[in-house]
Amino acid sequence: MIHNPILPGFNPDPSICRVGDEYYIATSTFEWYPGVQIHASSDLVNWQLACRPLNRKSQLDMRGNPDSCGVWAPCLSFSDGLFWLVYTDVKRLDGNFKDAHNYIVTAPAIDGPWSDPVYVNSSGFDPSLFHDDDGKKWFINMQWNHRGNSVGGNPKHPAFDGILCQQWDPKDGLLNEAKNIFPGSKHGLVEAPHLYKRAGWYYLTVAEGGTGYEHAVTMARSRELLGPFELHPDTHLLSSKDSPDNPLQRVGHGQIVETPNGEVYHTYLCTRPLQGRFSPLGRETGIAKCEWREDGWLYSLAGQAPDLVVEPPIPAEPAAVVESVSFFNGTELPQEFQWLRSPEPDRLFSLTGNALRLFGRESVGSWFEQSLVARRQEHHAYRAETTVHFEPTTYQQLAGLTTYYNRHKFHLVGISWHETLGRCLTMFSCVGDWPDGSLEHPADPVPLAPGPVDLAVVVDGEKQQFYWRQGDQWQMVGPSLDASVISDEGGRGEHASFTGAFVGMIAFDITGKALAADYPSFTYTPNCD
Questions:
Q1: Which domain covers residue 373, as residue numbers?
Q2: Is residue 122 assigned to a domain?
């Protein structure tokens, strides 16, 4: 059976397409580099990371992008023998403006080579590309209204000013004028448009209600591509907004896919919140089985609120959940790891042949060059551990282990230096977005003996505990910390937070000397009891 979420941990805004018997899902990566995750599956049950296509400076440079900006809502499609990937690079989050730039890249195969980007427009985010059966291509995105008023749109949410559609040609770019084809329903906050054609109808699915607990997939249809569109009889195809006890919350934003045998599924983003509605795993990807009914509309077989378990198109056993042990003895970073913003990873880290070497750069709060290499938290309970070789000479240098959401929501423990203790173990926490995001020191520094230090963290729901070791015995360092703050809703809350919790290795050296720290391995052990 299919067990939701199919892509656990931070994997939002799923765009799905099928090529032959293989399925592909592209998800947002925001400020994490390389940009866009594409997973592949032949059965909709088991998924493997196929590539992160935006992996060089000519395609993506997010240095200076604020938290939760960067790559939003990619759309993946296949036509004319090519994969087409549409994405937004958002340069601003707060305030009236978004500065959302939309691009297209292509590749002959899912693992590339992916082209340099073609710029399309900046009128709004969540773009998609629709390939009509007459050979024409259409670019669709939500329109962002910075003025804070509404003319013909939804007066409750005037910034979300409807869905634009405009013909696009690979050689000549945008053609004619964009038309606003759909204002959304009364639910408001219309975004994430995807077009689908069937039996003479153009079906439009959008996300509405914001990406919080009122989130929903709304459906409409028209005989003409440019409208007018009529709403689905139930308005929403998928949503858990009226099902607060469903284990999958914040359901919305996805896309239709049909199997070779004509079965229909719809992806969606969702969360599995802890008590108190904190979502450290971020927005994950789920899938619902659907059916076309006699009235010509698509319906979810489980109703609007999706099920945890779904029948797959072919029999398949889900892969076992196993420990992940990464030895940094190769020439490439293991694929589960990412870093922040920079298209120049050589300035942040290298593989020495027996360790991952982080070069201390800017602080843990930097939007430009931060030496942080981390992986997603995919389970509510896990243990992570690593070993650090680091010889600081000033308190302005640190290397260690962190649980990290963004620059204002993190806990870390690391090796640093103290005027009277010398080399020591120190701990920082930051538990709220600006202006409440000042550093806290949950524990006093601990003096260290010469040599490497083992560090570990155990996370269990809303609690986490750091550990350290020099010798045989693990010792706790500091108190039990609040892990729920490392979540979408922590700090200022869901409206400022779109990613998910990571755990990983960090180094900074704000003297400017780029002091290096070596990490031979990293282990992530899920606790699924």
A1: 324-526
A2: yes
